Structure formats: C-alpha cells, structure tokens
Amino acid sequence: xxxxxxxxxxxxxxxxxxxxxxxxxxxxxxxxxxxxxxxxxxxxxxxxxxxxxxxxxxxxxxxxxxxxxxxxxxxxxxxxxxxxxxxxxxxxxxxxxxxxxxxxxxxxxxxxxxxxxxxxxxxxxxxxxxxxxxxxxxxxxxxxxxxxxxxxxxxxxxxxxxxxxxxxxxxxxxxxxxxxxxxxxxxxxxxxxxxxxxxxxxxxxxxxxxxxxxxxxxxxxxxxxxxxxxxxxxxxxxxxxxxxxxxxxxxxxxxxxxxxxxxxxxxxxxxxxxxxxxxxxxxxxxxxxxxxxxxxxxxxxxxxxxxxxxxxxxxxxxxxxxxxxxxxxxxxxxxxxxxxxxxxxxxxxxxxxxxxxxxxxxxxxxxxxxxxxxxxxxxxxxxxxxxxxxxxxxxxxxxxxxxxxxxxxxxxxxxxxxxxxxxxxxxxxxxxxxxxxxxxxxxxxxxxxxxxxxxxxxxxxxxxxxxxxxxxxxxxxxxxxxxxxxxxxxxxxxxxxxxxxxxxxxxxxxxxxxxxxxxxxxxxxxxxxxxxxxxxxxxxxxxxxxxxxxxxxxxxxxxxxxxxxxxxxxxxxxxxxxxxxxxxxxxxxxxxxxxxxxxxxxxxxxxxxxxxxxxxxxxxxxxxxxxxxxxxxxxxxxxxxxxxxxxxxxxxxxxxxx
Length: 658
Fold this sequence. Notes:
Radius of gyration: 32 Å
Shape: elongated
Number of strands: 34
Oligomer: single chain
Mean pLDDT: 87
Largest sheet: 7 strands, mixed
Low-confidence stretches: 15-22, 280-285
Helix content: 25-40%
C-alpha cells in the first residue's frame, strides 16, 4: 500500500505527463515569427504632452516648423551692415570710408533706415540685417571715427559674409523632425526654437512585471532557509524603463493557481504587456500554462524554444495583449527577455532597435582643421559603396539643426591640420544612435520631398536629407555620398531640365513640377497686374527697388540669371539658399521682389507672377536602382498617395525632360 508521500509523488508525475503537450520546442526563428504574427509590434497611439515633459519620448508624427528659423536675416558677428561692393579693394593702406546711419541695430531692434551705397549701420550679433545691406564686416576689421560718424573698412567683404539668412536653419513648413525620433535635449531645443509648447509623442507601453515562486523573497526582507531574493523582478523592471516602457511592478506571486490567475487578470487590466518570470519548466509546480490557456484566445503561442539558456520560454496572447513567461533562472530570464521582449517594448514605444555605440566610417573628401586645436566635427552617416561614409555637416555653431541632424561626431586631433579623403574615422553616437540611414538624399529642398520621405518611412525605410542645392546634390552623387540627388536645373541651351547635367552612369527619375514666379508684396504697383518679365523690367529701372537673389548653383538662380541678364540691381548679392528665405525677405520689407515657388508665396501671403513650370527630379546611379530603399522610393513616385500629397502643395505630379 502506498504511503501518503508516494501518492503525492505519483500525482506530481501525472501532472508533469499531462503538461508535456505544452512543451513543443521551436527554433528561435520559428518562435520569433510566431510571436510577431500573434502580437502587433507597432507603436501605441499618441498623447500630447507639454514640451518639458517629452524628454526621452518618441515623436508620434512628423513635425514641420511653423516659422522660419531664424525668422529674419541676421548678423552673425558684431560689426557693421553694409553693401559688399562698397568694400572692393579695401586694405589697411587704402581703407574704404563709409558714412554711418544714425541707428544701432541691437538684438530685437528693427531697422528704420536703409543701407544705401556708401553707408553702413552698426549691428550686434543677432541683429536684423537692414534693407539694402548684403553683408556684415566684423568690428575688428574697421576703424570708427566718432566725430565724423564714419567707419573705415580695412578688408574687402564678400556678399553674404556673416549673414544668417531667414529660414537657413529651419524653413517655414519644412519637416524638421521625423516621426519616430527620440526626443533628447537637442530636439527640445529645436522644438522650442520653432515656438512649440507641446508635442504629440507615442504613449509609453505599461509593462506589468510579476515574479512567481514559493522560494522568492523581496529584497530587503529576511531571507528564510531555502529561499532566494527575487532579482528577476528588479532586472526586468529596470530593463523595461531602459527600453522606453513604463514598468508596473506587481511583486511576487506564490505557486498557487488561483492567486496567480487573479494576479494575471489584474495585470492584463492595467497594462499593455505582462511579463512573468518563473514557472515555465515542465516541473509539477508549473501552473502558468494552464492559466494562460483560459485567459483568452489565442492563448499560448510558444512553449519551449531551442535556446541555451532559455529553453522553457512561454509566449502567449490574451485579451489582445502579450503575456511572456520567462524562465526562472536569471541568466535564462534576461537572455530571453532581451531576445523576445525588448523588441516588442521598443516597438510599442516607437523606438528603433538597439544600436551600437560607435561606427567606423570613411571620409569622402579632405576636411581642413585648425592646427593646435582639437576639433569635434558633427557628421551624418550615409551608405557608401564600401561601407559607411561620414558626411561632416555644413551648418555652423549658430545652427540648432546641426546637432539634431548629426548621427554623431568625430575628433580631429590638435596636432593635425585636417583629415585626408579616404581616412576612416570613428563616429561616436549621439542620442538615438548612429545606424546609417537606408537612403540618403542630398540636393535642393522641397516640402513635397518632406512628404515623400514620410511616406517612405511608413514603408519601413529611414531616409536622411541634406540641403545643399541642386548642383551640390549632383556633386555629392558623383562622389558617392548619397543615393539620390534632388535637383531642378535648367539648361539654357536645350531648354531642358536636369537631364543635360547627368554624367555617364547616372539615371533620372521624374519627380514633379513646381510653378516658379516672381514674388512681391501685394499692392506694389511695380508688379501688380503685370506679367513677370514686364514687372522685372520695371523693378530693374527703379533704383529704389531691392531684389533678393538665390545662391549660385541652385536651379532658381539659373532662372533669375536668365531673367535679369547682366544687370546687378540692389540686393543682387543677397543670396540665401532657400525659397522660404526669399519669401521672408520680401514679406518683411527687406527686399521688394525675388523668385520662388508658388506654394511658398501662398504661405507668406505674397503676390505671385508665374514664370515657368520647373521640373523637380531625382538623379541616381543606374547600378543602384535595385537596392531596396532606392527601389522603394522610385516605386513611391507615381502612387496615389504620393500624388495626393503633392497636389496638397499645388505641385503637379510627373516631371522629366521638358
């Protein structure tokens, strides 16, 4: 006759035998696939928070700047605002003397007097560039004569010198931060510079954390014989926070089926994900699998994975929420947690996968540096032909976006005067990490391209955009620094856009058409009611009319040059790099006219005289066409979603040769 102990042993063996069906071992890949199929690895819905509360959160949607940053052309040094042509040939022996206007432009002070030929206006760093001025000379390169109210300039000044143009950092309507960006101090600075006081971020997933086992004792309590402290609960809780989740620690639950079922139901009611450690093996004390089978369909997805350590892992879904039962041993628990749970927590929080701390990358061209000073260079990463390429960012210390657009930085030692082309540098990560983007676009900016990049992100491809103008984009493509060059260059000899500028091995993808025209303040009789050519002729004949130009190498500059010929009217040397900066100069009265696209004119409330439909297209290396990210972008260009986005801005889908 069996003793009571033998009967209990027999019951335990029978229970273990019944449980065997729940331990069907899968491969790691099969288990991951089953888990991803059963649980949506997607960001949770957004919530709107005050800007100060968004540190470490993930942007729920793209953020476009509601203003130009800076909102006006500003001085980058203390000195004098003047016309660059008035300083030609200046040197210490033969300085150029300029009469001073009777105002001083401190920060926050609007100019009341224009800078005419032969005059200059004292201006502080950050001051508004007055009408007529196209450069600033540093005070160190001048000699002031108080009695004569004049200043001698001892060095020639180039047009645009020490001028920060409106919208040069962030243009009105430009997408400055992408959905999925992790908010750090640098992003908060950008959002504050845009004037935004609150922002939509992905809601953090609430992760309930339980430990089960009669042998467990909470840290801080007395350790009874045969018991151990619960380290899994503390480790899992910290790891949840570390990966963007909000932990809900629910303590230790005993090996009692009723108590554990109640604890799991309460956890499901208050969390997005439940993580339980302990009770996954085939031992007779395991009750979690029986509870999971009746909490809700589909129930258990995986019970047993071919891992060492971590074989007894259990993955389930109840009430549409994941329930993960980790092995009890700490090493097994954390291995499986980081392999299976961390990707889900980060996906729910809208975070990217975990990344490395540093990336070796090649410099595409020589980088000069000041000998004797260690220089830290902000850089973005692109995918080169033979590995990552480090692209030093062109924006200076006054730029908010230089820090945000950087994937990281590398150092040029004080003993060196620069780094040579082809050298490998170690890019140290900043914030969210340094994984090279799937696609790099360099060239001319367009709000329509911002929208295309957003649509591409929805298809799982991350893009980097750098705005250097059409010619700069082609040069970058030639050097292998980007996948796509965004351009709108008109060849005056053929009358065709873009195609004549391609080199052997390059191909052109038609983008869309944008209406270019003359922008002016409504009510100006020199422009109102006229055709563009006649209006420009009238403006050129008026010595008081001030234009705002565009930078050399831009597609718009070619159009302007064809419009004005050899004329060099006032404002010709004021050459910002964007349509927005042109519109801002006109809207603020610092210039009377310029050339920009129709959508920008509407945004700034300006009058518009049509000139031409320009073709905004994309050049790429023909051999790269089948690369996944590039192929996805090219396929996107003609879809209904893309055409709807372009139509919203007044662009006409389709491009190519004219």
